[in-house]
Specification:
The complex is a heterodimer.
Chain A (H helix, E strand, L loop, with lengths): L2 H32 L6 H17 L5 H24 L7 H23 L14 E4 L2 E4 H23 L1 H11 L1 H6 L4 H27 L7 H13 L4 H26 L4 H16 L14
Antiparallel strand pairs in A: 1-2
Helix pairs in contact in A: 1-5, 1-8, 1-9, 1-10, 2-3, 2-4, 2-8, 2-9, 3-8, 5-6, 5-8, 6-8, 9-10, 9-11, 10-11
Chain B lengths: L15 H4 L6 H20 L2 H26 L7 H17 L4 H23 L4 H21 L1 H4 L5 E2 L3 E3 L2 E3 L2 H23 L2 H11 L1 H6 L4 H27 L1 E2 L6 H14 L4 H24 L4 H6 L5 H19 L3 H15 L5
The chains are: A mainly alpha, B mainly alpha.
Amino acid sequence: MEWALLFQLLINGLIVGALYGVVAMSFVLIYKASQVVNFAQGEFLLVGAWACWWLITHMQLPFWLAFPMCLAFMTIFGIVLQVTVLRPLIGEPVISVIMATVGLSIFFQALMKWMFGVFAQPFPPIFAADRVSLLGLEVQSVYLLSLGLSVFIMLGFWWFFTFSKHGLAMRATAFDQQVAQSLGVSVPKVFAMSWAISAVVSAVAGVVVGVVSGVSSGLSFYGIKVFPAVILGGLDSIVGAMLGGIIVGVLENLAQYLDAQWLNWGNMINIAPFYALVLILLIKPYGLFGTRNIERV
Amino acid sequence: MAAASQLPSGDFRTSYAADMTIFPTRNSRIALWIGLALLCLAPLVFGRYELSLLIQIGFLGIAALGLNILVGFTGQISIGHAAFFGFGAFASAGFAKLGVPVALAIPLAGIVTAFVGLVFGLPAARLKGLYLAIATLAAQFILEDFFARARWFSGGVAGQVTENFSLFGFRFDREETYFYVVLAWAVIMYVMAANLMRSRDGRALVAVRDHYLSAEVMGINLAYYRTLSFGIASFYAGIGGALYAHYILFVSVEAFNILFSIQFLAMVIIGGLGSVMGSLMGAAFMVLMPEAVQSAAQALQGGALDRALNLGNSLNFLREMAIGAAIILFLIFEPDGLARRWRLIKAYWKLYPYSH
C-alpha cells in the first residue's frame, strides 16, 4: 500500500469529480427544464474550449478578454441549437429527441476535428505559479483554481435557483409546464435559456480542462462520463448531479489505484464508472436523489 | 393506414389467412421475384467495387433490421448495437478457428450473440426510454473494453484473421461469389422478420411499443418481450457481424466503436422506424452517402473551395458530419424515413393522374 499515492489519487478524484459535477449539473439543468436528454453535452465542452483556444492563439487576445467572448459565443450557440434543432422536436417520442442530440454530438465532434485537427493543442500558460504545496502534497495551481471555480459555479446555481426570478421560472416550468405557462412564464424562453446556461457552464468546464491538459477531441468524453454521475445522483436533482460527479471522480481514481496495485487490467479508469452505472440501474434506477417516476393511466 | 389504401379495388380478403399474407397483392409477389432475379444477375453486370458496396448493404442491412426490430417495433433504444455486431464477427471467426465450417459458424455466431444480447437485455426488461439508452451505452463501452482485453476471444488489439466462406468444397472468396452468400442470408433474414411481424410475438412487440401499460393489461408479459426483442436484435447483429467477418477476413476491435453504433441507429431512423424494408433502404443510404460525399469532394478538387477548406484530407470528418446532419434533418423533416417517401412515390404513380 502506498498511502501517499492513494491520497494523491483521492485529491485528483475530488478535483476531476468536481468538474464532472459541474458538467452533470448543466446536463441536469437541460433535462429538468426541457425534458431533453442531452448526449451532446460533451460537445459543449469541446466547442467552448476550442473557441476560447482559437480566440487566444489566433486572434491574439488576452485571456480576460477571450474568456468572456467565448462565453458570449456559447450563449448564442446554445440558444441557436435549441431553437433550430430541439424546438421542432417538442412532442416527439423520447427516442427521436435522444437521437437528435446524438446526431448533434457526432456532427460537432467531426466539425471540430475538421476545423482544428485531431491533435491536442496546449493552452498558452495563463497563470504564473505552477505548483503549490497543500498539506504536504504538491498540487498544480490550475487544479486548485478549477476546484474553486467548480464550487463557485455550484454556489451560483444554488443562488440562481433559490433567489433569482428566472431561476424560479425555470423551476416552475420543470414542475409543471402548463401551470407555469398560465402564470405568465414564457416556456420557449425558459427552454432557450436553460440551453444557453448549460452551454456556458459546460464551456467553463471545457476551458478549465483545456488549460490543464490541452484541448482535444477527448474532451467530449466528459459528456459520456456524465451519465454515471447523473444516474447515480438521480436524473432530475441538481444536488445529486454534483454529488454523483464527485463520487464518480473519486471512484474512477480508486479503480485506477486498485488496478495499478493488484489487478493490472488496464483502462479501468475509463470503464469502472460504466460498471457502476449498470449496477445502479439494476438496483436503484432513480438514483440517490431522483424523484420516482410513478405513471398513472 | 397508408398501406391499406393502396390495395386495388375488388381485392377482397375472404379468409384470415389471406389477410395475413406477407405480400398482399399478386403484383407485389411478382415484383419481388423479378427483383430477386435481377439481383442474382448483378455480378454479371457490376464490377467488383459496386458489388462490394452491395455486399456491405447486405450485411449492414441485416444488422440494421435487428436494430429496427428493437427500436422501431418494440420501442426500446440501443446505443450498443455495434458491440453486438462485433461480438458476432469475433464469435464466427473464433468458431472458424476451432475448425467449425464457416457455413455453420455464421448461424452459431448469431445464436451465441443472441444469448449475450439476452444477458444485456435483462436490465432492459426493467428499463425504458432514456435509462435504457444510457444502459446500452454502458454495454457498448464494457463490450468494447472486453474485446480489447480478451486475447483468447478476439486476439486482443492485434485483431483476428479468419477464413473464406466455403460450401461443399467451393470457396466463396471473391466479390462475385460472396455476393450470393450475403444475398441468401439477407433474403432469409428479411423474410423471417416480415414473418415475425405478423405472428403473435410480433404483434406483442408492437403493443409493447405503442402503450406498454395497456399491453400488460392485455396479458402481454413485458419483461419477457423486452428481453426477447433484445435477443432477436442481437441475433440479427450477430449474423450481420459474422458475414462481415468472412468478407473482410480480418476482425479488429477498433471497427466496433460507438460511432458505428450511431451509424446503425442512423440507418434505422433514415430508413424508417418500424419498417422492415426501410432498414434495407437506410443501410443503402448509409453505404452510398459516403460515396456521394467523396465524389462531391472529388468534383471540387483543385478548386478554390478545396484549397480553402482542405477537403481532400478531411473526408472522414465530412462523412461523420454528413451522418450527424442526416440524422437531425431526417428527424425534423421526415421522421418516418425513406420508407414513407417510398410509399408516397408508389401512391403517386398508382393514383396518377388523379392523385387528389
